[in-house]
UniProtKB/TrEMBL annotation:
Gene3D superfamilies: 3.30.70.20, NADH-ubiquinone oxidoreductase 51kDa subunit. The gene is rsxC. It is an enzyme of class 7 (translocase). Residues 489-509, 578-588 have a biased composition (Low complexity). GO terms for molecular function: 4 iron, 4 sulfur cluster binding; electron transfer activity; metal ion binding. Belongs to the 4Fe4S bacterial-type ferredoxin family. RnfC subfamily. One of its GO terms (biological process) is electron transport chain. Residues 468-509, 528-550, 565-670 are annotated as: Disordered. This is Ion-translocating oxidoreductase complex subunit C. Residues 468-488, 609-630 have a biased composition (Basic and acidic residues). The keyword Lipid metabolism does not apply.
């Protein structure tokens, strides 16, 4: 890459580089550059396309029937590659819909129809005269809100180009205007050089380049002089006169002429340290920052042999082509059937509808006389002369591109760098067979872009389908995992329930066995106590009371009932093993009651036995004492009574003991 200092030295001595190819068509600029820029009357209707730049379309923020003021924003967006459009004058929105676009295809696009009210009333403006103290990002935001896009080429958003993150060495201001007939930039530099200088200063403040270069073709001496006067006090600004060669105004070609650097085919000027703006863009930048005005009008050249008074005019964006052509006047033979070309003769296109509006990139309306221009409708076979290759400023092979584009072999056309073509028309200009080569290239590019769009749509649809499928698969796996975990949880709960039932049954069985053993011990002790009482009774008295025998029988019956209930409880627990958790509490309570009853029976039996033994031991002693105190003749009778009384007391004690045991057992059962 050429060194910066070396470039500056060559610029100071006006020793420039050259780009390959190029042609020298007759410029015919003298037709329209002799009079000052005029302002035509307001059109009856304005058609404002929502998109007038490279990038995305904004969102309409007005409705039909709304009254708007001059400079009021009509669209808005948050997308970085979109800029708004504004009302060129005050009036009423009569329609929002499709209207013919300013495009070679002549297709319709979303547009706003504005009916002016004739008052031309401005909205509130916010000028920023002290822009040097403002933040860079704030200035970029102002440029975006003003709707400024490139006014000399394809309409690239200015705020994007000005917000470069790379180091910029050269800020190039393009005043070449190399296309024949067009003089809008020439007259703008002559009449508004100082405001263009203001725009240059603002862009320089934002971008911070090392040097500023203003390039003007040498066929515009008045413009060169005006810009030299305006930039006289800028030591880092270089006004350079460039030889008149078409297309010297192309971005890549002009960078190569001024710096000797070539922009990569798939790169941008900022990749080699340069950035370029048109003089019309500089004027709009100054208007937006210093005056607060959005981009609502531009200078348009009205020229050609079919125009009565060729001139340059300030045309409001959205003004129909027919309105401007009528203002310039048509020659009598041209009034019935006139061909109108939007742009110059090299890169312009024929206007198919007179209601086609002026947009931000419209710089010329050309109305030629019959046979003034090569018609291009006399196409003949290619003779392989290679004149097109010699004239191509991009060093392409136009002949090969033509064959592949015509045969719709788009892959091969791309392999010959189709998209490096700047569509300057130099190849078609020198073609002896009058082949409209640029038209074939444009059709091929359009077809390729459509294929890319369809492919991108298909890929996006595929991505959405795969994302949906992945989401459904993930949801399915998640459901299956939940079902698996739920099944495992149920299985674990069932196992735990079975284990708990088995444990409960074992505990119940153990408790039942313990209760049965306790009842058996109680019965054994009761039987032993009964036997001891019987032995003592039979030893001391020959007779036993009938009540005592009955009490013993009832005690046995109660013990048998207790054993039966314990056995029944054990059988019930075994039979209802599945419902063990529900019956645990009742079974445990019954076993506990049986155990308590047995313990109480043992305690009462022991107590009764103790009382009975004490009675048996003490009663004979009392009887003997009484007998000793009685009369001698009554000893035998008294002794007999004493023995009977002792036996009765023993029987009663035993009966009381059994009755108490029976009551305790009944209480335990209840």
């Amino acid at each position: 890459m050429t060194d910066f200092n070396h470039v500056i030295e060559r610029l100071k001595t006006n020793r420039l580089w050259r780009f390959p190819g190029g042609v020298h068509p007759e410029d015919n600029k003298q037709l329209s550059n002799q009079v000052a820029i005029e302002r035509p009357p307001l059109a009856d209707v304005l058609y404002i396309p929502l998109k007038q730049h490279i990038g995305d379309q904004g969102h309409c923020i007005v409705s039909e029937g709304d009254h708007v003021l001059k400079g009021q924003a009509l669209t808005t967006t948050y997308h970085p590659y979109a800029v708004p459009v504004h009302a060129p004058t005050s009036g009423t929105i009569s329609h929002i819909g499709e209207h013919v676009s300013a495009h070679p295809s002549g297709l319709t696009e979303a547009s706003i129809t504005l009916v002016p009210d004739g008052l031309d009333e401005w909205c509130q403006l916010q000028p920023h005269a002290d822009y040097m103290s403002m933040d860079k990002l704030k200035l970029i935001e102002i440029l975006c809100d003003a709707g400024i896009s490139g006014m000399g080429g394809a309409g690239f958003p200015t705020h994007i180009k000005a917000n470069s993150r790379k180091t910029i060495e050269f800020l190039i201001i393009n005043g070449i205007e190399c296309e024949p007939y067009i003089t809008s930039d020439d007259r703008l530099m002559r009449e508004y050089a100082w405001q263009i200088r203001q725009g240059m200063d603002i862009l320089q403040h934002i971008i911070q380049p090392k040097a500023v270069v203003v390039a003007i073709e040498d066929n515009k001496p008045e413009a060169i002089e005006a810009m030299q006067i305006a930039c006289n006090q800028k030591p880092d600004c270089h006004i350079v006169s460039v030889p008149t060669v078409y297309p010297a105004g192309g971005e890549k070609q002009l960078i190569q002429v001024l710096t000797g650097r070539e922009v990569p085919g798939d790169g941008l000027p900022e990749d080699i340290g340069t950035v370029m703006f048109n003089v019309g863009t500089c004027f709009a930048v100054a208007d937006a920052v210093c005056n607060g005005k959005p981009l609502i009008e531009r200078v348009v050249t009205l020229t050609g042999g079919g125009i009565k008074q060729p001139k340059n005019v300030w045309a409001m964006l959205g003004t129909p082509v027919s309105h401007l052509v009528e203002y310039a006047g048509l020659l009598a033979p041209q009034e019935e059937e006139s061909t109108i070309i939007m742009g110059g003769p090299m890169m312009g296109f024929t206007v198919g509808n007179p209601l086609m509006p002026v947009v931000k990139i419209t710089n010329c309306l050309l109305v030629p006389e019959p046979n003034e221009l090569r018609q291009g409708d006399n196409e003949r076979p290619c003779i392989r002369c290679s004149a097109c290759a010699d004239a191509c400023p991009a060093s392409l092979l136009p002949q090969q591109l033509y064959w592949h584009a015509k045969a719709k072999e788009y892959d091969k056309a791309q392999s010959y760098n189709l998209f490096d073509c700047i569509e300057c028309g130099a190849c078609a200009y020198v073609c002896p067979s009058d082949i409209p080569l640029v038209q074939y290239y444009r059709q091929a590019k359009s077809a390729i872009r459509n294929e890319r769009d369809e492919k991108n749509k298909a890929e996006k649809a595929k991505a959405r389908f795969e994302a949906r499928k992945a989401r459904l698969d993930a949801e399915k796996q998640e459901r299956e995992e939940r079902h698996r975990k739920a099944a495992e949880a149920r299985l674990a709960a069932a196992k735990a329930k079975t284990a708990s039932a088995d444990n409960t049954a074992s505990q119940v069985e153990q408790k039942s066995k313990s209760a049965a053993a306790a009842a058996a011990i109680a019965r054994a002790k009761a039987k032993k106590a009964q036997q001891q009482a019987d032995v003592a009774t039979h030893t001391d008295t020959p007779a036993v009371d009938t009540a005592t025998t009955e009490d013993a029988r009832k005690a046995k019956v109660a013990a048998a009932v207790a054993r039966a209930k314990a056995k029944k409880a054990q059988q019930t627990e075994t039979a209802h093993n599945a419902d063990a958790p529900a019956a645990d509490t009742a079974t445990t309570e019954e076993a506990r009651k049986a155990k308590v009853a047995a313990a109480v029976a043992r305690a009462k039996a022991k107590k009764a036995q103790s009382k009975e033994s004490h009675f048996v031991e003490e009663k004979p002693a009392e009887d003997k004492k009484k007998k000793a105190e009685a009369q001698p003749d009554d000893n035998v009778q008294e002794d007999k009574k004493a023995r009977v009384a002792a036996a009765v007391e023993k029987a009663k004690a035993k009966a009381r003991q059994r009755a108490q045991a029976r009551q305790k057992e009944q209480g335990a059962e209840e």
